[in-house]
Amino acid sequence: MLKMRIQLLQDKEIISKEVSEFMMRVIEKMEKELPNAPFDHVERFTTHMAMAAERVRKGETVEGLDPDEWSQVETCSESLQSKKLFDEMMAFSPVCFPESEQQYLIMHICNILAEMETNATRC
């Protein structure tokens, strides 16, 4: 389903083939590393990452998170794992994400991991 969404974005020329191929690898990594991640969170993350990669490819920029919000992300218990996973994805990224985009993407990963932790403690 996630790969179909990325393919649709490519078919509609919203993202490039290069970004689409990158996102297919990201999805595979997410499925391997976080098989129990909530689908809606992963869907939000992959869509955001695809659009961010396309913005970077086109030379467009966004403002980063508010410093207080970023501070919360950096101090959350999932921060180190989130940054590690993000860095692993960057190893095959066709673009170099600026810090502003990195902040949003790492925040999404933190949210996925936090939700997984919440769901694990409910069982």
Describe it.
By secondary structure, the protein is mostly helical. It has one domain. Helices cover 75% and strands 0% of the residues. It is built from six helices and no strands. It has helices spanning 2-11, 17-33, 39-58, 67-75, 79-90, 99-122. The two termini are 26 Å apart. The mean pLDDT is 94.
Write the layout of secondary structure elements.
Elements: H1 2-11, H2 17-33, H3 39-58, H4 67-75, H5 79-90, H6 99-122
Helix pairs in contact: 1-2, 2-3, 3-6, 5-6
Rg of Cα set: 14 Å
SS field, number of helical segments: 6
Outline: globular
SSE succession: HHHHHH
List the uncertain runs: none
Q: What's the number of extended β-strand segments?
A: 0
- The percentage of residues in β strands lies in under 5%
Number of domains: 1
Largest sheet: none
- How far from one another are the termini? 26 Å
Report mean pLDDT, rounded to a whole number.
94
Q: What structural class do the secondary elements suggest?
A: mainly alpha
Helix content bin: over 70%
